[in-house]
Amino acid sequence: MFAIAITLLVIEIHVPEPEGRDDAAWMQALAHLTPHFLGFVLSFVVVGALWAAHHRVFGMLQRFDPAIVWRNLALLMSVAFMPFSSALMSTHPTERIPEMFYSLNLFIAGVLQWRLFRTALRAPFLREDVPLADVLAMRRRSLALPLMATVSFALAFIMPGPSNIPLMLMPLVVAWFARGGMRRRQATAANEG
Amino acid sequence: MFAIAITLLVIEIHVPEPEGRDDAAWMQALAHLTPHFLGFVLSFVVVGALWAAHHRVFGMLQRFDPAIVWRNLALLMSVAFMPFSSALMSTHPTERIPEMFYSLNLFIAGVLQWRLFRTALRAPFLREDVPLADVLAMRRRSLALPLMATVSFALAFIMPGPSNIPLMLMPLVVAWFARGGMRRRQATAANEG
Amino acid sequence: MFAIAITLLVIEIHVPEPEGRDDAAWMQALAHLTPHFLGFVLSFVVVGALWAAHHRVFGMLQRFDPAIVWRNLALLMSVAFMPFSSALMSTHPTERIPEMFYSLNLFIAGVLQWRLFRTALRAPFLREDVPLADVLAMRRRSLALPLMATVSFALAFIMPGPSNIPLMLMPLVVAWFARGGMRRRQATAANEG
Amino acid sequence: MFAIAITLLVIEIHVPEPEGRDDAAWMQALAHLTPHFLGFVLSFVVVGALWAAHHRVFGMLQRFDPAIVWRNLALLMSVAFMPFSSALMSTHPTERIPEMFYSLNLFIAGVLQWRLFRTALRAPFLREDVPLADVLAMRRRSLALPLMATVSFALAFIMPGPSNIPLMLMPLVVAWFARGGMRRRQATAANEG
Question: CA A26, A29, A35, A36 torsion: positive or negative?
Answer without folding.
Answer: negative
